[in-house]
Amino acid sequence: MSRCDLSFLADDGFPLKGTLFEGSGTRPLVLISSATAVPRGLYAGFAEAVVRAGARAALIYDYRGTGGSPRPAGWKKRIGMKDWALLDLPAAARALDAVSPDHPMVGVGQSYGGQALGLSGIPGRFLRYGMVATMSGYWRGLDDRLAGPRMFLVGVPASLLFRDMPRRLGVGEPIPGSVFRDWARWCRMPDYFFDDPSLPETARYRDVRTPILAIGLTDDPWGTRRAVRALMRHYENAHVEERWLSPSDGGGQKIGHLGFFRSRFAETLWPQFAAWLLDGTPMTIGTTSDAQA
């Protein structure tokens, strides 16, 4: 297996950075899209695992304004959270396509990376799409009832003072303040960004017919069943299977909102997820319910 960093451009000229893992397998290409404020490095172990399992290649990348894709000197255009889905995800898919044009591709999205599929305009490029801890961000749908007040009363004022959110505020890795304000605005809306009249691209959700496996974690205070269902109902024309995993499925270790892709689950949670992505093999761990037929 080889590993190399890639530089590629979004349609508006923003430079993005990713890491490509290539092998000799013939199974699908795998595009991995991050959660908000999570650097691509978190997904490196899983990317290596799917390539070892036979994927032709896997790509992890950083959204604009985050990690290895910082705002370039002289960039004046506002960075919005929707840009990650409308511009960055399609650019990453094109970069992965260049490895093996017209080869089958599957997608993985954690949290925002799953929300982004419906906005991206390219769902037809994916044979299957696996989502982990992907949910509506409406704050009253979370079990962490302090998340909203922290975001609105602390995070939003800070986003007006700093161009990029300071790491010490606890939102994760630095993201543009403008992105944080978009996120906070959506989290106030009962139907999340579907209530945002400035985001007509939500209508694209009806065009998604890609089979989706939505993995929820029973110990995730943000990706609750009601929050996951609130988002998945918008994938109304796709077959969506919900699969709920608990710490007991991972050897008794806490999973939470962001833990699934940590290497401690390489032998317990990853193999069946990878098999579903690459071959469509049903998962048998956890419990399941069909959100849509």
List the SSEs and their pairings.
Layout: E1 2-9, E2 15-22, E3 29-33, H1 44-52, E4 57-61, H2 81-97, E5 105-110, H3 112-120, E6 126-132, H4 147-161, H5 177-188, E7 212-217, H6 225-232, E8 240-245, H7 270-279, E9 287-292
Helix pairs in contact: 2-3, 4-5
Average pLDDT over all residues: 93
- Tell me the Rg in angstroms: 18 Å
Reading off the top of the CATH hierarchy, the class is best stated as Alpha Beta
Count the DSSP helices: 7
CATH superfamily, by name, is Alpha/Beta hydrolase fold, catalytic domain
User: What class, by secondary structure content?
Assistant: alpha/beta
Largest sheet: 9 strands, mixed
User: In the CATH classification, which architecture applies?
Assistant: 3-Layer(aba) Sandwich
Strands ordered across the widest β-sheet: 1-2-4-3-5-6-7-8-9
Task: Give your account of this protein's structure.
By secondary structure, this protein is of the alpha/beta class. The protein has a single domain (2-139, 204-292), classed as Rossmann fold. Helix content is 27%, strand content 19%. The chain is built from 7 helices and 9 strands. The protein has helices at residues 44-52, 81-97, 112-120, 147-161, 177-188, 225-232, 270-279; strands spanning 2-9, 15-22, 29-33, 57-61, 105-110, 126-132, 212-217, 240-245, 287-292. A 9-stranded mixed beta sheet has the order 1-2-4-3-5-6-7-8-9, sandwiched between helices. Helix 3 links the parallel strand 5 and strand 6 (126-132). Helix 2 (81-97) packs across helix 3 and helix 4 packs antiparallel against helix 5 (177-188). It is globular.
